[in-house]
Amino acid sequence: MEYVKAKLNDQDFMQKVNSGVTFTLEMYRVLVSTLLILFVPQKCGDHVCSYSENMNAADNKLYTAGLFFNFLTMCLATIMYSIEFKRENRLITYLEVNKGKPCDNESVGEALTHLSEPRRNNIWKLDKQYQRAAYITMFFFVINTIISGCTVYNYYLDGQTTTTFITNVLFMVAKLSDVYATANTEPNVFYSAYLKSKVQYNDVDPDKYDTCQIENNEEHSNQKEDEDQKDTGITIVEVQAQQEHNEINEPFSNNQYKILSTSEIEILEQVREPLTRVDTVIDIVREQEEKQEDEKQEDEKQEEQFGVDSMV
To answer: Is residue 219 part of a domain?
Structure first.
């Protein structure tokens, strides 16, 4: 039971199941949308043509050409779907959907550096093959639709012929437009072909990280930080602050430190000197006040003593 729950919560597993089901349904779309001459109702004498009769081209060259392009387009679409399914599984295996990370071409390219070079090249190769297969299939689908339309309407049955033909064509048009949006992207933008919310794979699967590449990236990052530190002239200095009123030159009791730039140190020194002067002035004023107070008390004592002497 725990295994089943773990699988249901596994993003990779659920995406693969969804892709497999969607792929199976898509194959039906391929058949009815490419083999138009077989699946669109046509008139054979006084009855609706059967599948075997639709396959019989007789001596009609247009009909023969229509059947040829029907099966050729079906083969090309099947190849495209195979590459699409393989691409999707490869993306699910190596990448994942991370909504907390950016999805632009440069950011995803940076994330791909966590993969080994063969895996990165494999993803790019499959994505390029999918793009080419999509364009070729679109081209032949247009030709197949035109030839099949001309062929079918030579054996027009009734309104059902038009309805079925348009419906089947629209099946594939909707799919190919979706394929175009998925394939026509920047090199590092990988949209899902089966998750209909247009999920983009923008991060590397954690269990596929290339440890050697990670170490190289960390060394490069540390070197860059050291260079930045030298350029900005950062120095570690002890931050001094006022603990009590009019006391400014003692450090924090817990010896806290802060990283300050050279310019900040100069400003701190400039501020410290005036504050020291203010503290000195305050001390002088206090001394004068105390001296005046002592003189006043001494005068009062002398006056009292003079009064006592007068009475005597």
So the answer is: no
The string of pLDDT tens digits covering residues 129-168 is 999 999 999 999 999 999 999 999 888 888 889 999 999 9
State which residues form the domain around 280.
224-311
Confidence of residue 249 (pLDDT cuts 50, 70, 90): very low
Question: Average of pLDDT values for 196-205?
Answer: 71
Q: What is the mean pLDDT of residues 247-262?
A: 49
Statement to judge: residues 130 and 150 lie in one domain = yes
**Is residue 42 one of the residues assigned to a domain?**
yes
* Total domain count, the chain: 2
- pLDDT value at position 59? 74
Last residue of a domain, one of 214, 242, 260: 214
Do 241 and 127 have their domain in common?
Answer: no
- The answer to whether residues 32 and 113 belong to one domain is yes
- Is there a contact between 167 and 32 (Cβ–Cβ < 8 Å)? no
Tell me what the mean pLDDT of segment 19-37 comes to.
84
